């Protein structure tokens, strides 16, 4: 089971997107778990859950470079969710981004 974890300011707005992504994964029988969290909890979540892919919401784009630098060293791909995909809660497109990042590696 691959773990794709989304992070935003509070984890609230991203939870709807995570839910849509999980539905798409389930509909296609993909062994992927999608969850949403708040950015301040990223290190704790990493230590407990060891995600396979980290995606940041557009509202926390300021943290993208630092997050990428930190977690790419740990062989975890980090992506930034497109604002239009985020705004339209397009679970399929964001799930495709996560799968692409995991396939590409770092």
From TrEMBL:
Pfam (any one): PTS_IIB
BP GO terms, sorted: phosphoenolpyruvate-dependent sugar phosphotransferase system
Residues bearing PTM Phosphocysteine: 8
Range of residues in the leader sequence: 1-18
GO molecular function, a single term: kinase activity
Domain PTS EIIB type-3: 1-106
Keywords tagged on the record: Kinase, Phosphoprotein, Phosphotransferase system, Signal, Sugar transport, Transferase, Transport
Name of the molecule in the record: PTS sugar transporter subunit IIB
């Amino acid at each position: 089971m691959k773990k794709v974890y989304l992070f935003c300011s509070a984890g609230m707005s991203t939870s709807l997107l995570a839910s849509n992504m999980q539905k798409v994964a389930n509909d296609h029988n993909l062994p992927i778990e999608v969850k949403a969290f708040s950015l301040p909890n990223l290190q704790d979540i990493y230590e407990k859950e060891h995600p396979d892919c980290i995606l940041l919401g557009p509202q926390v784009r300021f943290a993208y470079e630092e997050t990428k630098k930190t977690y790419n060293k740990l062989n975890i791909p980090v992506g930034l969710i497109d604002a239009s995909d985020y705004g339209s809660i397009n679970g399929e497109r964001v799930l495709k981004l996560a799968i692409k990042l995991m396939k590409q590696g770092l």
